[in-house]
Amino acid sequence: MSTQCLPFLRPRPARGTAAVVAAPLLILVLAVASTVFLAEAGYHYWKIYLLYLLLRLWVPVFQTVYEAIDVHLAFYNLCTRPHRELFDALRRTLCDNPPILEFEGHRYLSIKDAEDGTPPARTIKLHLAGCSDEDRVTLALSDADAGVMAFADGAGLWHAFPGFEPFFPNSTTLPFNASYDHLIGGHQNLPAVPLGRASALEAIRALSRPGATPEPGAEAAALVRLLMVMTSESLRWKPIREAFSGDWESETFITTEQAELVPRWVDLSYLVFRWEATGA
User: Of 185, 176, 190, 181, which is closest to residue 229 (Cα–Cα)?
Assistant: First the structure.
């Protein structure tokens, strides 16, 4: 069976300057102390144990240090291509996320620096096209959680959610944040969001026009949240993806039960990681 990408968040290790210096030293002290104890107790393989302990605990510390890069996915014309192709391309990109962490043969999403104000290891820039040459929008997704951070209109001008502006120089700050509480009054209202090809094309057309944001705020929020459901939530939750992807030509809506999955994603991610790590 081929390795697939689990739509789960990977717990975020601390990295800052102090952590990079202190963590290896602390690991070294603990490793040496435990090895000395075993050596004095007559454990004959203490040298092998020390090497194993250092490799097992020290290497992941340095794997958290990364240089942020952009990954571009070529224009996907949603006027002619199905959502399934877009989803497959995003999933393949998200799975290519060294250092690899797997759960029962399935990979987690990419690692993310826990320090506030730092970019993800990779910003996935998904270029979307509509039915005319002017209909061009680029979504910027974090490969750590598949969340949308910003979008660029047809003129290449970036419009970023509050808090992500430093990652997109000369960007305009959107008058709402990425929370569904701000975008639609709460996740419970997501069943009112129309999904499907026609809705996606209208969102691309409207957002591609320079000056389309930040006014009117309510209209821009409606367009952005629609694309978020079709990208971020479809990657995180199979039931949400299946609600519209297979019936792409029609206007569809997710159910109340599917909408209730959305706020549980982070908690479920940590429960899966804990289960894999501890068995409990």
Answer: 190
**Non-local CB neighbours of 207 within 8 Å, separated by 6+ positions:** 137, 151, 153, 213, 220, 223, 224, 227
| Beta strands at 158-160 and 172-173: parallel, antiparallel or unpaired | parallel
| Cα distance between residue 40 and residue 213, in whole Å | 69
Q: DSSP per residue over 92-139, as a string?
A: HHHH--SSP-EETTEEPPPP---STT---SEEEEEEEE-SSTT-EEEE
CA distance linking residue 84 with residue 89, whole number of Å: 9
Residue 9 carries which DSSP code? P
CA 48 and chain centroid, separation? 38
The pLDDT value recorded for residue 13 is 47
Burial class for 156, CB neighbours closer than 10 Å (0-12, 13-18, 19+): exposed
Look at residue 265 in the predicted model and tell me its pLDDT: 85
Phi-psi region of 186 (alpha: psi -120 to 50; beta: other; left: phi over 0): left
Q: How many CA atoms lie within 13 A of 266 on its CB side?
A: 5
pTM for the structure as a whole: 0.75
- Asked if CATH classification 3.40.50.280 holds for the domain at 69-270, the reply, yes or no, is no
**Three-state secondary structure call for residue 36:** helix
Q: How far apart are CA 206 and CA 273, in angstroms?
A: 40
How does pLDDT run across 113-124, given as a tens digit for each residue? 556 677 888 899
pLDDT for the residue numbered 192: 96
* CA atoms within 13 A of residue 136's CA, in its CB half-sphere: 12
Of 79, 78, 101, residue with least CA distance to 89: 78
CA quadruple 129, 131, 133, 137: dihedral sign: negative
For Cα atoms 64, 67, 73, give the angle at the middle one, nearest 5 degrees: 110
Bridge partners (DSSP) listed for residue 151: 139, 159
